[in-house]
Write a structure and sequence with these properties.
It is built from four helices and twelve strands. The longest helix is centred in the N-terminal third of the chain and has 6 residues.
Length: about 170
């Protein structure tokens, strides 16, 4: 069985000369990242495991240290690499009303019984996640992923129910 991987961050640059790296990650994921023992990077199409030795947070990023990477030159080959975890690991840490981006992209969006579009992407504006919805009129609208607007998400039936307030979908 092929394992699916989910991106959880990106190695932005080196930090110091001891093989540490600056890690960019999504807001409010510190607890999740702190629980990880290993992550994966993709090298030549293969997912290669990296064991986490140390992880600490700064106001702008995380500083991460991997086993066996002890010099500036060692870490430089990982610069700009996306880091991944197994999908099952990511799922274990989801809250009740959280979803993986891959699960949401492609879902049909409904206002009542009327299909109004489909999710083509997910982003974050710092305050909330935003669903990029391509409307039936082929416009892209950003829909805040908040309870007042996104009424329900039904992964099994590939359907999101929204409260289409005036001006939300163009």
């Amino acid at each position: 069985m092929k394992s699916n991987f989910v991106s959880v961050g990106k190695i932005l640059n080196f930090h110091g000369v001891q093989g540490e790296a600056k890690l960019g990650y999504s807001k409010n994921r510190e607890e999740f990242l702190s629980a990880l023992k290993e992550v994966f990077v993709q090298i030549n199409g293969e997912y290669v495991p990296l064991e986490i030795v140390r992880l600490r947070f700064t106001p702008k990023c995380a500083i991460i240290k991997f086993k066996g990477i002890n010099t500036l030159n060692d870490i430089l080959e990982y610069k700009n690499k996306v880091i991944f975890v197994n999908e099952s690991t990511a799922r274990e840490h989801l809250e009740e009303d959280e979803y993986l981006i891959d699960e949401l992209v492609g879902l049909d969006v409904y206002d009542g019984e009327k299909k109004v579009g489909a999710v083509v992407g997910v982003s974050n504006n710092g305050a909330s996640d935003l669903l990029s919805v391509k409307t039936v009129g082929k416009q892209i609208s950003l829909v805040p992923f908040v309870k007042a607007i996104v009424l329900s998400v039904d992964i099994k039936n590939r359907r999101i129910q929204i409260n289409n307030i005036e001006g939300l979908l163009s």
